[in-house]
Amino acid sequence: MKTRVVVLDGAMGTQLQQRGLPAGACPEAWCAAHPEVLRAIHADYISGGADIIYTCTFGANREKLSQYNLTDVFSLNKDLAKLARAACGKTSLVAGDIGPTGKFVKPFGELEFEDAVDVFKAQVRGLLAGGVHLFVIETMMDIQEARAALLAVKELSDAFTIVTLTFEKSGRTLNGNDPVSALITLQSLGADAVGCNCSTGPKDMARIIARMAPYAAVPLVAKPNAGVPKLVDNRTVFNMDAATFGAHCRSLASAGAGVMGGCCGTTPEHIRALKKAVRNIKPRRQLKQIPAALSSARSFVALDRKKFCMVGEKINPTGKKKLQAELMSGNFSLVRQFAKEQEAQGAGLLDVNMGVPGADEKKLLTQAISILSIATDLPLVIDSSNADAVESALRLYPGRALVNSLSGEKERIRVLVPLLKKYGAMCVLLPLQSKKLPRSCAERKKIVLETVRAIQKGGLMLSDLVVDGLVLTVSTQPDSGVETLKTIAWCSKSLKVNTVVGLSNISFGLPQRHLLNRTFLTLAKAQGLSLAIADPQDALPSKNKFAQALLRNKDAQGRNYIARFSGIPAQKPSEAVTLSAQALVSRAIIEGDKDTISGLVRQALQNGIDAYTLMQSHMIPAIITVGEYFEQKRYFLPQLIASAEAMKQGIDIVEPLLAGAGAQRSKTALVLMATVEGDVHDIGKNIVTLMLKNHGFTIVDLGKDVSTRKIIECIKTHKPDIVGLSALMTTTMVNIAKVVEAARQEKLQCKFMIGGAVVSRHYAQSLGVAYAKDGVEAVRIARDLSGSGPTAL
Amino acid sequence: MQLYNFASIPPPSVTERIYARMGFREGKTKVSQEKIDLYERYMREALGLLELKGVAARWPITRRSPVRVEIGEAAFDSKLLASLAGTCGELLGMAVTAGAKIVEAIHSCEKNDLTRSVVYDATASEVVDGCFDWIQKYMQQTLRPENRQLLAKRISCGYADFSLSNQKIFFQLLQLDTLGITLTESFMLVPEKSASAVTGILAYEK
Description:
heterodimer; A: alpha/beta; eight-stranded parallel beta sheet; 14% strand; flat; B: alpha+beta; five-stranded antiparallel beta sheet; 10 strands; elongated
């Protein structure tokens, strides 16, 4: 592989279909029954120049075979492997082909991860018995299934193993895995070559290979289709001829592929053209060691001493009673929410700690890993001192994780290093060897060097480590900031290893902690800090001179800092003092400011404006403006609702004062609102109700799924001016007609206004009632129907 | 009949579709960054509450006419489906649910925080729709080795002449009760943020 491009074979399925495989037949079983066909295909590919041929066992796993009521996985794999071995002669090698199960593996699917490993192990055993030289795991669309298959091979054999995923034209697998993350995950887990096959032609595949190349410590593999499949007269056609295919494969080699073959639509001719095209190309060299990089299923972070990355710290129940209670009850909503929040705030990695007192940490950690693997794209930091929990998490995690942490204690090294090696994880190295904390940089250096030597004996590389700078609070140890900065500088510049700090420790017991944290982070980044485990909001740079002096141990006992920042009042937003209170009320409604409206309304009333004027001259014009903005599309629904909610809060204060103030209040129109029988969707009805209330209508809201009979009874009881009915589904829309009809039969004098997702203006016209497409139109229609206006209050 | 169960569908990226659903119009709608941050926080909260599950099944077409498509003992009376699946050998039935938590949250916010409720609702609806795209892509990939193709279009119960009462067939054949879904007498799927759809699989061509 170092001196020339290795050539793989081409499509098997296409060849089988051309040579008689009937529709709906199991390809593997058919081949076993027609060995001469398979022999001929293998022979054709070998004569075309294939250095490696694949066994015809792509779907020979328990899950796929069961669809054909076949159960003998071992024999079928063994027999088909033997057939390939017999065909390959002495010039070619046989790769045992492992394809997907057709099921998604947990956490992305229902197939338990260990069940998936077992499914693949059964196949691997058969292939080994058949004498395969190496393995190829191919056409994987889910990194987790690829991991399960790779672990199955590696736990049974030391054979060279190729893993290829299938990336769509978008550059991702169907499950959203991107090529670089997949490469980082698989090469650290022990894949000997990684790449892609199927889905695209050589041109698009070259782009995928080019993305992988800068991170590859293993040969890259490309097995493209013969172009992009097209549907011609309902037939799938691959129309790239062999010569064109070969020519494109040269660009694949230039992009970094050192192992190449063909997938769907390719023939022995395509392989011959490929062989000819790449014969004088020397494969691109890979990296000498696996780079310091972490991955999730869908993204990666390359660690760099010149490029800082924040590790979100919030997914940690320590001191968080609500999170603890949720976790104890098996609820992970807050975990998901913290992940999303921190991602939005700029975290590049997420620390996950599930150390809840009295809980099963192993169970919680694996559950959290499963949930977060779906909920966030960010790679995870597995934060636990429980080796069992760490192993379970590493086995399940569909990426390359950072384990937090490994100390210099011999027992910890003995237990953790083999796990880290097996699962290809990186780890945080904590410079601790006993319970005594090393205070000086010199002490920390000594422990780091001793630990690194011990870890390297276990097979880990320096690039697998991230050294913890060991942050202690400056409130009790004034020199701790300086010693940590020195440690970071030494690790980054001399040892050339990545570093991390637990940032918030620095400010413990001091005021204005965020300021101190941010300033320390700024100083540490200048020394080459790679990671900080912190609140992502602490990533904002700060060069505050008081904080810097304290952190550099140039402020004795922190006197100046504490004097400057103790009891500092929270910054108040600048207020537009020039606006009157009533103008601010109007603005709060237009801007949908629910937080301030009540205070502003009270302030306006205290300032002497009467309730009636406030309502008529400021609040109602404001909500009318909002309606206009909505109709002009200047506002969209959440803004309309927020304004309506702010208005409602204002009305709640003003309304009781209207009668008391002696204002003449005209009779308000009464609207009866209901979502009709059988329909539980009522959010639209609730929006209309809120809008109508804000415009002075009196509402009787009957809720959702209300029977025709009940609506009619309520019309008789309340004698509304208008009845507003909504329905979301076609099956429930007919119940609107039933209500209208029943009301007419009873000769009830009320007008109807209807709406809802499936209700149309045409339908309303057919019933002889009014239609409103949204809340703003409902107000207008209600005013027209009742003869009242927004000044009705 | 093989069921393809998707125990945990990755949430599709549908932020733009959520905005569009709520009436946002590029170039017209003016929203402050503060509000955008707030709405996107609500969206993240909603995403945290979603438990996206799905199921699909291939249904061989046993008889067809211009107004009816039969799949074994079940039949869909729909000109639209008959036209869509005109050259197809099979149908692909699908269902997706966002789970009960998001629906509970939508309702619990309705009284005192309708804005949040509206954003949750739009997020759940668009994510569920996006999950159908995901299932179709998955099935497309699965069908490729068989030299079969999936139609890009799909139709949902209640759309045009494809009656909502067909939910009953989906409910039974896709075993939707195993996803925690129930069917009301008016053929609605509960939890509310659950939906079903059907598309066609073109016949095998050698």
